[in-house]
Amino acid sequence: EIIKKLEETITAAPNILKIGVAYSNTSELQSVCLGRKEGKIYEENLTQDNYAKNLVNLALKNNSGWTELELNEAIKNYTSVFYMPAYAYGGKKTVGTIYVEVSLTWLSGKIDSLKLEKKDFGIVLSKTGNILYHPLNNLIYGQTNIFKLLGPLKAAKKNFEKQLSIIRKAVNGESGEGYTVARTGEPFWYIYRPVKQGNWAMLINFTKNTVPLNEK
What we know:
By secondary structure, the protein is α+β, with helices and mostly antiparallel strands. About 25% of the residues lie in helices and about 40% in strands. Strand 5 and strand 6 form a beta hairpin. It is elongated, with a radius of gyration of 21 Å.
């Protein structure tokens, strides 16, 4: 019955890479897990694997939450695992965890659906500034940090302090919008908002002609 429920869930959600249940049976860890690889769903044995053990420990300690983002080389994108406690009969004692590993490929679809113009674009940043989504895929694959990209702006004195301030506010969970000048000298409008599901930040730039507002 558990396998059937897990299979129904992973089949309906293409961004799920793994879904499973792990729990302690006396002194031994038991695990039921389904994974996805190259479009096919398979059963995976994680009973003696640290992957399942670590998730059980996180559920016991933190109740529920997301793991730190990791770059998955196979899919060329970041993944994170959401875990929550599995309770013993009666609902009082945590004996394990239910978990789902999700890829961030859905971010591309969400931002692409905004249908931004050619010079307009959106990016998504982790709390530490790592680029989770960017129109230039190599910045994602290279695990690029936005603060390192700003370095050349400081040397060239091209609006460095203002752009640094915008990025810092964004990754700290603040919201804002305004008008500034890119390193190319082109003026643009910007907006940034927190993505609460993952404690990330989303920033969108619009060129001056896209949003014909009063610059003052």
